[in-house]
Amino acid sequence: MDAKKIKIGMLFPLRKEHDQLNKLCQDFPIEIVNTPYIETNELRSDRGLNHGVNPGLHAEPEIDDASKVEWQNCDAIVSMDLPSYPQSLFPNLSWFQGVSAGYDHIDSSALAEMGVIQTNARGIASASISEFVFARLLQVLKDLRMIDQQQSEKIWKVKFGSEAYGKTIGIVGLGSIGREVAVRARAFGMTVLAVKKNPSTEGYDEAVDQIFPVSELDLMIGMSDVVVMAAPANQETRDMFNRERFFRMKPGSIFCNIARGMHVVEDDLVQALNEDHLRAAILDVTRSEPLPVDSPMWTAKNMYLSPHCSVSFDSYEENAVTLLVENAQLFIEGKSLRNVVPSY
């Protein structure tokens, strides 16, 4: 192999061949080797609660010898997960391209110690996730669950819903997903508020009607009919939504979390639902995934659960490949990559 070639390990199993990747390898000194590695949801969830480190509750997938040999010479890898002890598995690694926006399940500290550039896939699924938010929100507002139940029971009984128009939505985290939620909220005629970690000094952002600093989160949620959690997972946002915060929300308001389960104290959310303080909760993520069968979340009043599937895969893989191709070219040219994860 040409010594100047860049070797990229494709740990994320692609479902089909992509012309973009073939052209990338033709036009640039790049070799892509397919070495699939996918961890279980349980292990990924545990890593997410432990800064990317495997606490030992779940076994990691076995890695065949052929993959280990290939990894020794990889300059970059594309993956959903990062195996433990990356220093020994990927001694020549310079770049880690994640295929999800979230990276709490990745041992970023280990990558930083290795001098590896870490990039994520922020933005490639923001449209589909925001569509999911409104699919669920309209389901709640229009009482579609009850209407569907009545159909299954052959009951003809009028049930009128309520409007999204004129309501106020508060978005926690105005990143790529938060902005897509804001765009759709405005299309429905909602007032859009948002909490942003680093708002401009003017406190203005064209994506929303009003922006708040994190210190005024409680003020914003108290003004909102719907609260959407779309912030990244870190120590500042761990357990952000607890009993005190849920009961600061408007009576009859709706809580939605499409970020990470670690943001929510789940027993407190269950209490707010069962005591009818909240109208409903929409959760695509939970603290432990899969959700344990004995969790009270399953039977909480007006709980709308989904198994971390707000992403739509009809375009996800294509978007991920497009990002990879762009970043690979930047990497070859020694330029700054897109979606670099800050190291602390």
Features:
344 residues, alpha/beta, Rossmann fold, 7-stranded parallel sheet, 5-stranded parallel sheet, 12 helices, 12 strands
Please provide a written account of the structure.
- It is a single chain.
- It is built from 12 helices and 12 strands.
- The chain is an alpha/beta fold.
- The chain has a 7-stranded parallel sheet, with helices on both faces.
- It starts with 5 loop residues before the first strand and ends in a 12-residue tail after the last helix.
- The model has no long low-confidence stretch (mean pLDDT 96).
Largest beta sheet: what is the strand line-up? 8-7-6-9-10-11-12
Quantity of strands, as a count: 12
CATH architecture of the largest domain: 3-Layer(aba) Sandwich
Kindly name the structural category: alpha/beta
| Element-by-element helix/strand order | EHEHHEHEHEHHEHEEHEHEHEEH
Helical proportion, percent range: 25-40%
> What is the mean pLDDT?
96
Calculate the terminal CA-CA distance, rounded to whole Å: 36 Å
Q: So what's the overall shape? A: globular
Can you tell me the number of structural domains?
2
**Regarding CATH, which class of the largest domain?**
Alpha Beta
Instruction: Write the CATH fold name of the largest domain.
Output: Rossmann fold
Helical region count?
Answer: 12
How is the main sheet built? 7 strands, parallel
CATH superfamily of the largest domain: NAD(P)-binding Rossmann-like Domain
Which consecutive residue ranges, at least 5 long each, have pLDDT under 50? none
Rg on CA atoms, Å = 22 Å
Strand share of the residues?
Answer: 15-25%
